[in-house]
Amino acid sequence: MSSSLPSPRRVRARLRRRPAGDTSGGTVWLFDLDNTLHDASHAIFPAINRLMTAYVARVLGCDEATASRVRVDYWQRYGATLLGMIRHHGVDPADFLRAAHEFPALAEMVRVRRGLAAHLRRLPGRKILVTNAPQDYARAVLEIAGIRHCFERVVAIEQMWVHGHLRPKPDRRMLRRLLAQARIAPHRAVLVEDTVSHLKRYAGTGIRTAWVTGYLRTVAPSRPHVVPAAPAAVHDDGSRRDAAVRSTLAAEDRRRAGHAVQERSVTLVAAETQAPQAQPDNVPRVRARVPNRPAYVDIKVQSMHQLQRRMRRTGS
């Protein structure tokens, strides 16, 4: 008579897949990755920008200035350089994403706050990672940060195809399908993001939203722009460009930009959901001017520590 008990190997595999920490309660947390769980503005986003611009330049056979203008155009029209490159140039999404996320020294680029894993484990509810980044990159960052075991599932951009079309965040169809597949009622889900434009897009879907602002920085100038082509006869050492950047920042500060402009600045934080920026490494990156909590944001915090503490306090 054969035993119905699972083999020790299957038991160990099941235990490895079970997420660590407090999974009690009805809340399901849908966590973004870059600039939400780690500081991507420090090194990763600038590197992604350079790699994406270089990829566009290779495909188009053009210089960096032209590639930068194309990226701005595609971002404004489609919300992502990748979608424009697929539509107009037939690029392979996997090849584009792989080229934009090749980091031999990734471990040296990832910055996380101390105690991140502990705060995630204490946060009550199920936790799913939902990122527009490619899967290999997302899993590598989670491993380096020491938080892979906190998530029951990783939903990367490779899993965001809907009816034959790539639908990354903030597409509502993709999120509705994800919730349906995971059997999650919208009112039980909380989307945790740094990109406020994503949260705004999902307003009215029934999900709750949490805005993480602790890692937000803008790359000055803070709004979408095109990198001008340098005249062939001029060998600019960068000093004039730096002076122009400082002048732009000073002008913005003097104008004391209104709430709408400030909010737009804060959305320019992800390498693709923000304006594509192609700038030299010496351009200063400053902390964003974060406006008050918009009406479509349910929770506004700076860190996972604040999120965990607030949820414990409210009993959610």
Automatic annotation (TrEMBL):
InterPro entries for the chain: HAD-like_sf, HAD-SF_hydro_IA, HAD_sf, Pyr-5-nucltdase
Disordered, as annotated region: 1-22
Biased composition (Basic residues): 9-18
Protein name: Haloacid dehalogenase
Natural source organism: Cupriavidus nantongensis
